[in-house]
Amino acid sequence: MHTTNEKKGTKLMRVISGAARGRRLKELQGMDTRPTTDKVKESLFNIIQFEIEGRKVLDLFGGTGQLGIEALSRGADRCTFVDQRREATALIRENLKTCGFSERSHVVQGDALSFLASCREKFDVILLDPPYHTELLEKSMEAITRFDILAEHGIMICESAADRELPPLAPPYEQGREYRYGKIKLTICRRAGSERT
């Protein structure tokens, strides 16, 4: 459950686990942001708990920054946050400062698809939680595979409405398990690596 501070007009969320466990994260009201619920967030990180430590993470639709911050709290080496709204990127920076993760983060204000098209690095973990009523999830998945932004053996987590069918991925990308939580679905996708001899 999210608690609300009526006087400041902000809702408060908490980091679930790791170095910043219990830290409160702010979320501005009226930002057209739909934060991942604590139940889904905890389930997501239970699924990928052994894929986080020491990894480079991309939180492509940053919003409040809570998913990337949770990854940093659980030992991710670095996280890049992207959001096109100035208010959101300012809030992400504030939440990062609160948790002491500013030095391990890079915050980009800009369009997600433009960021992917110009990205010159690969990430080990990509978190995709765009607005449900858009086609941004499908377009982001297509761009990530086309520009090959996920590192070998990397993992991409897609949050969507439970009844949404996601497009098939071209090799070396492949869609894995789906996890449903009421009206929300998490889909785990991976990138194969070169065979080691």
Question: Can you characterise this structure?
Answer:
The protein is 26% helix and 32% strand. With 197 residues, the chain is of the alpha/beta class. The strands form two sheets. The protein has a seven-stranded mixed beta sheet, sandwiched between helices. It is globular, with a radius of gyration of 16 Å.
Short description:
The protein is an alpha/beta fold. The protein contains five helices and ten strands; from the N terminus they run βββαβαβαβαβαβββ. It is globular, with a radius of gyration of 16 Å.
User: Mean pLDDT, nearest integer?
Assistant: 88
| SSE string, helices as H and strands as E | EEEHEHEHEHEHEEE
| Major beta sheet, strand line-up | 6-5-4-7-8-10-9
Report the helical percentage: 25-40%
> Which term fits the overall shape?
globular
Biggest sheet character? 7 strands, mixed
What topology does this entry show?
Blueprint (H helix, E strand, L loop, with lengths): L2 E3 L4 E5 L9 E5 L9 H10 L8 E4 L6 H8 L4 E6 L2 H14 L5 E5 L2 H7 L4 E6 L7 H12 L2 E12 L11 E9 L2 E8 L6
Parallel strand pairs: 4-5, 4-7, 5-6, 7-8
Antiparallel strand pairs: 1-2, 2-3, 8-10, 9-10
Helix pairs in contact: 4-5
List keywords for this structure.
197 residues; three-stranded antiparallel β-sheet; 10 strands; 26% helix; globular
